[in-house]
Design a protein that fits this description.
The protein is of the alpha+beta class. The protein is built from 2 helices and 3 strands; from the N terminus they run E-E-E-H-H. About 25% of the residues lie in helices and about 25% in strands.
Length: about 90
């Protein structure tokens, strides 16, 4: 399992259009905010994904583990976690 996040206001510097035509943007990508993601891998399958528009703290992480991850884990599973994830959790 691991946690990551992405910013909503990351600028898009490139686009696509037919050759010789100007590329026009249809969406204002100047949105503020961040979405954080927690997910787990089983082999090459990504599952138990949680998307959060708030910072991930120990209470949220505990809720994700107990309510999302554990119910879908196969029996006798071993959970491995990146130490950086543990260091970044706020209490």
């Amino acid at each position: 399992m691991d946690e990551s996040g992405f910013s909503h206001d990351a600028p898009r510097t490139h686009g696509y259009s037919p050759k010789g035509q100007r590329c026009f943007g249809l969406k204002n990508w100047g949105a503020r905010g961040r979405t954080n993601v927690i997910g787990a891998l089983l082999g090459t399958t990504l599952f138990a994904i949680g998307l959060f528009d708030i910072n991930i703290n120990s209470d949220l992480f505990y809720a994700w583990v107990t309510q999302v991850l554990i119910p879908v884990l196969p029996k006798n599973s071993v959970i491995m976690m990146d130490k950086a994830l543990l260091n970044n959790l706020t209490v």
